[in-house]
Amino acid sequence: MDSSDIEVPRLPLTATHPKWIEVALADLDAVMADHLHCERKAAQSALSMVRAYPDRPDLVSAVARLAHEETSHVVQVSQLLARRGVTPRFDLGDDYVRALRARLRGQDPGRLVDHLLVFALIEARSAERLALLGQAIQDQEVGQLYRALAAAEVRHRDTFVRLALAVGPSGEVAARLGELAAREAEILARLPIRPRIH
Ligand SMILES: [Fe+2]
Ligand SMILES: [Fe+2]
Asked: Ligand 1 center to residue 45 CA distance, Å?
C-alpha cells in the first residue's frame, strides 16, 4: 500500500485544557525551567535511537539532525532563563512521558515503531503548548521565540511520524498511531494542570 493512501491522525488528538495557559502564565519561570529539561531530554532521547538502531542509516541521520536542533533549543531556553534571572531547578521527572513509554511494545519492529510514535506524540503536545505560550506571552521577543520553537516541534512531530511509517507496514503504523494518540489524550486528562510543558 502506498503511504499516501494512509489516513494518519492529526496530532495531538485533543486540545489542551484552556486552564493550562492560565496556570502556565501564572508561573512562567517554572514552565521555562521545565521546558529547558524537555529540550534536553528530546536531544538525549533522539541520540538514544542511534545507540539502539545503528543499523538504520536513514533513522540515524534524521534523529542526529533532530538532536542537533534540540540542543540548540536547550541553548536558547537556557539563555532566556539567564536573561530573566531565573536559576532553573533540577528535573522533576516526567510522569506524562513515563506513562506513554509504559505503552511501548517489547519486541522490534513494534518497539521501534512505538518509540517513534511516542516521540511524535510528545513533539505534537509540546508544539501545541509552545504555540499557546507563543500567542499568550506579552513580551514580543519571548513570544516570537516560543512561536519559532513550536514550529520546530511541529516539524519534529512530522519527522517521527514519517520515520515510523517507513518502518512499516504503514497501514498498521497509522492505526497504532491512532491508538497511542488516544492513550496520550487519556494520560494528559488524568494529570493535574500544572506550570509545566506536560
Ligand atoms: Fe525542541
Ligand atoms: Fe522537538
From this structure: 12
